[in-house]
Structure formats: C-alpha cells, structure tokens
Amino acid sequence: MAVDARESARARGLFLTAPDRPDFHRAVVDYVVRQYPPPGAEVPADSMVYVWFDFAEGEGGGGVREPRVPRPPAGGLQRELGEAGDAFEMIGR
How many independent structural domains does the chain possess? Predict the structure, then answer.
C-alpha cells in the first residue's frame, strides 16, 4: 500500500516517487503494482525508488478473482475416456 511503501522507504533512507500519481503524498490505500529498482536490489542511501500504482498501457491487470456464482449447471453429455496411454482410441471406431 502507498502508506507502507513510503514508511518502508523512509526507514531505509530512500526517496520514493510515483510517476503515475502526482498526488502521491496523499495516497494511502492504493497498492503498488511495480517498482524500480526491483525489490531486494541493493541501492545506496538517498537513492530514488520509483513506484507505480497503475498498470501501463497494454499490461493489463490481474482481473477479478471472486467466485463466479452461480456456477454453470452440472450435467449434460459426458464423454467416456479411453484407457491411459490410448489417446486416439476413439478415432478408429
């Protein structure tokens, strides 16, 4: 989250900026989706770390992951599976 990213950077003596968020100093609950340098990279104190809160053009997002309710109805025609290792058995019949 934005507030956690700012506190973490401050504790390590780093500066944080967000190119896609001019009002970054007011952002609180927005989630960081990427950063440069990447997490875990060693950088000197007083370095600038860039964070982004929105995906760039064409990157897309993770989508919605909630359960789809109602689920599709069960039933319908079922296909009988052949024996293991017999991938094309049904073609010859």
Answer: 1
